[in-house]
Amino acid sequence: MKRMLLAAVAAIALSGTAGAETIKVGVVGPFSGPFAIQGKNFKAGIDAWMALNGAKVGENDVEIVYRDLPAANPAQAKALAQDLVVKESVQYLAGFYFTPDAMAVTPLLEQANVPMVIMNAATSAIVTKSPLVVRTSFTLWQTSVPMAKVATARGIKKVITVVSDYGPGVDAETAFATTFKADGGEIVESVRMPLSTTDFSPIMQRVKDSGAEAVFAFLPSGPTTLGFLKSYNENGLKGAGIQFLAPGDLTQESDLPALGDTALGVTTTFHYSVAHDSPENKKFVEAARAAIGNPAELSFPSVGAYDGMRVIYKMIEATGGKQDAAKAVDAVKGMAWESPRGPVSIDPESRHLTQNIYLREVAKAADGTYYNKEIQTFANMADPGLAAAK
Ligand code: PHB
């Protein structure tokens, strides 16, 4: 009798492990407001992953719970994350477009026993704020160091930097300036502008007056970047021979139709082009375009989200669906795969992706659409910003 009872208890315990539990993943991002296309890209990447790989890991169903955060707002980010953990019982937090939002949530992770998979926020230091952060996007150090190398190789000697005054902007400025100066270049002026800036004409005048041969710029992708590049064109900087240098945030694919021919020939450095030529990317783009609806809206946050889902699925598999954040994160350290962007791996120390960064040029396809054509590869880059962030 006692034996039977024990067997029954064991069977119940087993079914608790292998039975169909629903694992919830809370995704925070801008799904409305001026940055809504960026959030839409998170969702397209997630939908593409689930369309190609199913909505189950083993016996466990995976459910995505979305929370809208229209603009950078750390207090609201924290409140949304708390709500997802306490009320929705999510086992994973993911998404996070803006750095300040990701930063505000890192102090909650350990007590909540929840890993955070960052699908965009790109300031190097975020991963140092909690051992439970894993990032599948890029950093501004990764993308800006190669741009400084490109500037030097082109014989440019004097640059003015213009960045949004917050984490990733400061990283971009520091990464570019440090690398460019080490190679003998000169930074004639460094401008930091508020994140809320929409009138860029006064800045373009400063660029003209600075005596620089080129401007290096970073702003977070969205209406900001579109406005900045339009202003560069409209204020005659190109005509004045001032070259434009930037990470790929400035020429995201969803901005290209509005920029039109004025963007042709603009070169940027980035981890992902929708036009990346590989079977993995073809498969991804097809699924992500079906998910997003309007193919012209597909842009880089989708690939951060797609790879983020791969990482979360691996975490669910490694923990058998049980909530164990440390074990989940340990399971993905060193993980390597072929991403739609190219080969990637998770550096066990930084928990950030080692990946190729590409120099790209805005080009026009035979069908009249614009794309970022990859023309040079900086292979296998770890985050050069990690040392600076410590
Ligand atoms: C960030 O806030 O970390 C961020 C946002 C948009 C970008 C890059 C970085 O394009």
Automatic annotation (TrEMBL):
Domain annotation Leucine-binding protein: ranges: 22-364
Xref: InterPro entries: BCAA_transport (IPR051010), Leu-bd (IPR028081), Leu_Ile_Val-bd (IPR000709), Peripla_BP_I (IPR028082)
Keyword Protein biosynthesis: no
Signal peptide region: 1-20
Gene3D superfamilies in UniProt: 3.40.50.2300
Source species, domain of life: Bacteria
Gene Ontology BP, a term: amino acid transport
Keywords: Amino-acid transport, Signal, Transport
Any Pfam family: Peripla_BP_6
Homology family: Belongs to the leucine-binding protein family.
The protein's name in its UniProt record: ABC transporter substrate-binding protein
Organism phylogeny: Bacteria, Pseudomonadati, Pseudomonadota, Alphaproteobacteria, Hyphomicrobiales
